[in-house]
Amino acid sequence: MESVAKRIERLRNEIHRHNWLYYVENRPEISDQAFDRLLKELERLEAQHPELITPDSPTQRVGGQPLAGFRAVEHTWPMLSIDNTYDRNELAAWYQRVLRGLKIQPSAGEGGLFDRGDGVDLVLEPKIDGVAVSLRYEDGQLVLAATRGDGRRGDDITTNARTIRAIPLRLMPDDGMPRLVEVRGEVYMTQEEFQRLNHQRIDQGLEPFANPRNATAGTLKQLDPRVVASRHLRFYAHGRGHLDPDPYRRHSEFLAAAKRWGLPVNPHTRQVSSLDEAWKYIEEFERYRAELGYLVDGVVVKVDRYDQQEQLGATSKAPRWCIAYKYAAEQATTRLRDVTWQVGKGGTLTPVAELEPVFVAGTTVKRASLHNVDEIRRKGVRIGDVVVIEKAGEIIPQVVRYVEDQRPRHTKAIEPPARCPSCGTPTVHLEDEVALRCVNPDCPAQLRERLIWFAGRDQMDIEGLGDKMVHQLADAGLLHSFGDIYALPQKRDRLLELERMGAKKADNLIRAIEESKSRGLARVLAGLGIRHVGTRTAAILAQHFGSIDALVEAGQEQIAQVDEIGPVTAESVYKFLHHESGRQVIRELREAGVKLTEPRQAKAPVKSPFAGKTIVLTGSLESFDRKTLTDRLESLGAKVTGSVSKNTDLVIVGESPGSKLDKAHELGIETWDEAQLLEALKKTS
Ligand code: IVH
């Protein structure tokens, strides 16, 4: 018995050490296979002696059952965000503010701010495009992991964080390690893992993730820790939270200690003592970062000394002792071969640039967005042009401009199509809209998009029925209508004839379809793609009427009288339900056994500064992705729309806002920045 216990302990120490060598020291001594063998042996011994299992054993990373949801946790210290700049002069201006704040006389050096040391040590860290988390260790044991959330409260993701091998379950004892250690850092995904995951998802008929950050965020939100474990997330520590006791006087000192305890710290972290050195590093790192294997979108510059940090303090949004210098989005030039027009679920035609493939920011780009006809006109791009495209670490690459002095002799104007490329119906330009539309309700391309939408995660959530699968089924003649989805379970044989469709995949799809039948009326209404009806409106209608029959019986007036439903939405809903194609859809869903009722809940009236407001979002926000924020605002009674008009009450402006901001100024509409938004949201929770 004694010897088994000893062997187990030795194995655990070995495994911890190799983990540390791999993730912290970046110099593995054994192969992955050899590592797995150690782990297997430990698993075997623990299985024979379950009484010897401890929670910090490396075998205990993946917990048992999926969670029902995440618990909210309050951060002991708020998790602030950081100010960004893309500009060398702004970086210098920040440094000047730091000096002023510290009452340090700038000693006038030859090259101005950029060639002196002023007694302010700076720490430079790669800014990884991932998800910030806070880890709490008590007596060296990992007890809590939380996401940033809104900065004050986040989600308890401990079970998920435990599966990340770079996150130690216990810290290595070290003289003077505080009893309580809260460390903040970035969870991220390597580009290789991102590609692997996306290929797998496409194979399974799922939507691929847009970028590694979304993939990371999506993974951390998984309720099943086994899924998280399978995705190989990484972690680097980049700051402290609450420490007790707190003996450290500098950020660099804390990072060194964290590293001793076995927490990975980015090896490219540097301490410098002048802005000049900082700038040199930033410039050198821009080229170097491509070789890292993970996305770095800038360099975070931090004042090293904690006493100086405290002296500088923070604004409501971000500390003054820290700034992120962000690299400009990677650009490339290539040729615009052609423009195709994609038909959206509501009939909107979107121009897509078909490009000569070009490698940019880690992937080969063949297509890019041209947004709409106005954009094309504004940019003056023509088919055949050499164009500059840009990937802002974001979803779809954009066409920025054409290269004037490389315009070939024969270029072709980009003509907005007179007819829908899918069904040939003449296109229309609706008043008050930039978009061109196909108004044929039976347009097959629109139908496919509507089916994809219907099956989407926030609608009927039919896993496996993504973009690719809908196209495959439609091409095979198995999918022409909503009702056809529910006929698929009876067509298992036909499914099995499809390419890349095994029995397991077919059965999973069938199960997902069956499960979706019971989602209820709100989800169904949200999934139908009725204009002006999003998740929130669908929920209100479902709550109010309780069943599709009651909603169908209601007159347009009656619908318009429902709280928060305007006449435009009411008309759209009414028309949809009373048009032959809408009636047909309802009939099909009913026959398929899809639940078309909604249990009524007694509902507390929403009291919030957002109730009844029409809000538009522009630019990207530090604390939210668009979807999360939209959901949150809608749950507080707001209506979130895509474009600014005279009906807009408020525009929320993030980083690099688009033309919506100009429009808001033009119309004199109130605008808020992120700090104002966070303030107002605080009051609602
Ligand atoms: S420090 C108060 N350091 O960037 C300082 N953040 O734009 C808080 N990030 O939410 C953050 N690398 O998710 C810091 N070396 C680094 C970072 C880093 C990436 C992320 C982090 C933060 C966001 C702010």
Description:
This protein is an alpha+beta fold. 37% of the residues lie in helices and 19% in strands. Strands 12, 13, 14, 15, 16, 17 and 18 form a seven-stranded antiparallel beta sheet that branches. Strand 13 and strand 14 form a beta hairpin. The chain starts with a helix and ends with a helix. The model has no long low-confidence stretch (mean pLDDT 89). The site of 2-(butylsulfanyl)adenosine has 16 residues, from strand 3, strand 8 and strand 11.
- Unreliably modeled segments: none
Helix content: 25-40%
Bound molecules: 2-(butylsulfanyl)adenosine
Main sheet: strands, sense, barrel: 7 strands, antiparallel
* Percentage of residues in strands: 15-25%
Q: Total number of β-strand segments?
A: 22
Write down the overall geometry. Answer: globular
Terminal Cα span: 54 Å
Rg over CA atoms: 28 Å
**Oligomeric nature of the chains:** single chain
Average predicted confidence as pLDDT: 89
- Structural class, from secondary structure content? alpha+beta
Number of helices: 25
